[in-house]
């Protein structure tokens, strides 16, 4: 499902003059949700930057209906809402738009349960790799080595492999995406909306304020994350794993840009020593090994069938 | 804008509208300025603009191409558009240069 | 008898001798830090002070307020400053484009200490304008963070000059304390304050009208 | 029918469409019964099998926001776990009904009756009703749907019923038929619905002044709910013969010298106490609070007027002060009779009408003897009276008090 940029809706799904920081990846991502799902979407937004970005009553900065909800309740409230709208015969797509905290930490329990129940919702984790709304504190999705206001020495632990954890629930659709690749994200959203059941999309969203980079570089940094292999674009459709461009060309490590190109632009990694970068590189390799192993297994299965 | 409740209740509801955080054009320290000659009308600036302040005006470029029109009332000057432009048709210019112009437009 | 009741009165008198300040900046520009450093400088001089951040989820670039009070004696007050004696404006655009907000509620004869490339007309206001080009000072010293000139420390120097509320020495000492772990940053900020102190002027005559295009 | 089943049937009769609940003793039967009613086709609704109470209320709330009648039920720790959602639900003005099967909070683990859970909801903006028996649990649940969905109110509501004492006790009750309920309960109304289309946001930031206005409106709506409750109670009486027109129930109050005030199942026992004491020559009545929010301030004030003694029974404590009902009722009583709060029956300790009679007699004797109350709050424990700490240091203990003062 190729996305023709010129044919995307021109309607405003993000209202100019909202309260997002300059260069915010969440407003970029939200626009793509609107472009992909349009008038069918009803958003459920647990506490986070996206609650505040809406700005001040009587206006709100998102161009879609939004039910704001408490931090831990995103997936649960969306479950109820989706059931009610279906019972009323309304053609709608309920979407949870949650941050990494609302997804991987405080919201994980409700997310897991909704996935297990197979609720008909799209759950999007907008991953800016820390609690940005409260001022850059570490989350379960903060990567190894990153500075935050609660990891002054750099985080000592690795990023929680959330897309894999959600995929282990054997739901019909799990995908990773990046605000650097809007066409890929939009195509995945459209695909997700065409599937009944629980769909999960993990959107990588570099935050200029929290990661300490020039706000003009948001999209570039997002693309570098993919080009260096730090973030991998893939999708599980009914359990079948597929790499998406450009990640599909990056299985060969030599095709990837050095991770230093990604790291050096971000203040949060400024203090990293060579051995820290090495550990981070190993983590990247580990992710790729897992993906590659899974792909090989699938290939073997395919071959044995024929 | 806010939604009225027929029963007269005060409700925690807002409606989508521009300027929920005020005239965010004030936030800028730099503004993107277009060189229409260079612009190829590729839509990249429009696609990536986090603030949705860019509109593509079809056929308005010197070669009949679509060109971006930026709403400086709300543009926060992040510079994403200038960075994603493949032909460097957008340049970030210090806001100070426009300060008086703005005041004159407002008050004069 | 209630053992901890305050006795003595005289609080209103103390409040009347309190200097109340309002800082206007943009989110991320350090208005709150400026207020805090001012209070620290006042404390170094044996005075009492209080720095009040603007509470809330302000975003980078947005118009934000901070407040401060400086007095000889403690004053038990925690509300925001409504009638400032001094207004400090960190960003040139704020005074140019949001003049009403900057002048809102100021006491007659209040001092406006602003970061400006040149003086501006305050209209009918009885406020007195003090100005310094803090942006240029910050740029010349290389005080730039994420593309933004850091002007809050320079504006403290300007404030010291315009009001005499605290001495420039106390301002410099407060700055050095604040960045005690980073002596180079401390020295740059101290230099910004000293330069601004030297360069701050009162706009005596009404400036020339802005030329019509 | 057990109290829990009565509540489940009420949800069915109210044509609830979405139920989200998580089991907790002693509420579990509610969830099981509703699931059974859905499975058998008797009830046309969906059950969301959530993983926690926090999600239970969130999912029920999501459904209610989406425009259907929704219901949940919980107890004790479950209620504590969903606490933040209580605030969110009420302030968003979305009608929704919840049953709270009252139970103590630990540690140590205790699954028995105590009103601590219910009383912790008082400040959240929900309507709160408290049943005395299973019939009332059913009737009040039906009424609650009508009251919460009334445009003058638009707030969620809680029905309290005592853990085990009602929830697990089988009592005969009259189940209204569907036509009657349909006549009583109009189709669902709510101030707004979250659905595709109009790009509105529920709950984004507001200026502080507007926030205060929202809170004032909630407060006023709860005050207006008084009238709505009385109308609904009268209408319910017209249709079923059981009228709930008043926010309180007064039993032999009019000519009484002594009034026992309280709420919940033990107030039935207190009525027996009143009869017993009257046989002994003590003119006693019972003032039972059927509603805790809105608080029946006027009714209490009127009922207490001119009485000699008001004894308030509490089944939970506001640690460091006294029983919460005692504290609340104190605010309503103007020409103060002698007023005493007694804490008892906490954590499921059994209290009979004889216990209550003993309490009242003891207090009454003291008041008669000394002319006034010296210690306004006691904890009644295993037949003995323990003066409540805030007062014992200030007032003399009863045995030390000079006689005949």
Give the helix/strand layout:
The complex is a heterotetramer of chains A (306), B (108), C (213) and D (405).
Chain B: E1 13-16, E2 30-34, H1 44-48, E3 54-57, E4 67-70, H2 80-84, E5 90-94, H3 96-107
Antiparallel strand pairs in B: 2-5, 3-4
Chain C: H1 11-16, E1 19-26, H2 31-44, E2 48-52, E3 63-71, E4 86-89, H3 92-97, H4 99-103, E5 111-115, E6 128-132, H5 134-141, E7 144-145, E8 148-149, H6 152-163, H7 168-178, H8 183-199, E9 201-202
Parallel strand pairs in C: 1-4, 4-5, 5-6
Antiparallel strand pairs in C: 1-3, 2-3, 6-9, 7-8
Chain D: H1 3-13, E1 18-20, H2 28-39, E2 46-48, H3 53-65, E3 70-74, H4 76-81, H5 83-91, E4 97-102, H6 116-119, E5 127-130, H7 134-148, E6 157-162, H8 178-184, E7 200-202, H9 208-240, E8 248-251, E9 258-262, H10 266-279, E10 284-289, E11 291-293, H11 297-304, E12 309-314, H12 324-330, E13 338-343, H13 353-370, E14 377-381, E15 384-387, H14 389-392
Parallel strand pairs in D: 1-2, 1-3, 3-4, 4-6, 5-6, 9-10, 9-12, 12-13, 13-14
Antiparallel strand pairs in D: 5-11, 8-10, 14-15
Describe, in plain words, how this protein is organized in 3D.
The complex is a heterotetramer of chains A (306), B (108), C (213) and D (405). Chain A is an alpha/beta fold. Helix content of chain A is 38%, strand content 15%. Chain A has a single domain (5-304), classed as Thiamin diphosphate (ThDP)-binding fold, Pyr/PP domains (Rossmann fold, 3-Layer(aba) Sandwich). An eight-stranded mixed sheet of chain A has the order 3-1-4-5-7-6-8-9, sandwiched between helices. Chain B has a single domain (22-107), classed as Alpha-Beta Plaits. Chain B is built from three helices and five strands, in the order E-E-H-E-E-H-E-H. Chain B starts with 12 loop residues before the first strand and ends with a helix. Chain C is α/β, with parallel strands linked by helices and 213 residues long. Chain C has one domain (18-202): Pyruvate-ferredoxin oxidoreductase, PFOR, domain III (Pyruvate-ferredoxin Oxidoreductase, domain 3, 3-Layer(aba) Sandwich), CATH 3.40.920.10. Helices cover 37% and strands 20% of the residues of chain C. Chain C is built from eight helices and nine strands. A seven-stranded mixed sheet of chain C has the order 2-3-1-4-5-6-9. Residues 1-5 and 207-213 of chain C have low confidence and may be disordered. Chain D has helices spanning 3-13, 28-39, 53-65, 76-81, 83-91, 116-119, 134-148, 178-184, 208-240, 266-279, 297-304, 324-330, 353-370, 389-392, and strands at residues 18-20, 46-48, 70-74, 97-102, 127-130, 157-162, 200-202, 248-251, 258-262, 284-289, 291-293, 309-314, 338-343, 377-381, 384-387. Chains in contact: A-B, A-C, A-D, B-C, B-D. Strand 3 (66-69) of chain A pairs parallel with strand 7 (200-202) of chain D, so a sheet runs across the interface.
